[in-house]
From TrEMBL:
Protein name in UniProt: C40 family peptidase
Keywords recorded for this protein, A-Z: Hydrolase, Protease, Signal, Thiol protease
Organism: Pedobacter albus
Keyword Transcription: no
Coiled-coil features, chain-numbered ranges: none
Amino acid sequence: MKKSLFIFCFLFAFALSSKAQDNVSLPAQYQKMMEKILGNIPKVATSKANSLLDFAKSMIGVPYRYASSNPSRGFDCSGFVSYVFGNFGFKVPRSSPEFAATGVPVKLSEAKVGDVLIFTGTSHKSKRIGHVGIIYSIDNEGNIKFIHSTSGKANGVTITDFDNYYKGRFIKAVSIM
């Protein structure tokens, strides 16, 4: 992987310097090599997202517990998300509202598995951030399921459809990975 990354960086720098100097593109053999390397990058990202989600899924059924990020006691929503990402070396906030300023904002239509969804709280009167979850799956029709810790019916870590109820509370999506 390190060798591929080095080759990619070299070829990328070569391409930039060549184009900047005289609008010459990469020779065909290097262009094919660069395309092959670039083609493998999403597989690496998908692998990390899958590992993260497998870990998150292992906590389904852990009960909801306000202000907790401890799997032996339970999780609130942001405690769950921060615990999951923290186990993979990502530094993320501990409270839901802070997620709005974390990561890279992405359009919902461009969100990927492993991205974080940010919602309002349950009060219909307030538009303040109050809930977060991690995109668990996106099917071919664009239907999203997300994993989160909820104080609702499931009362703990569960996988939920991004249905009209959550669409009405949706604020934004961010990419952490």
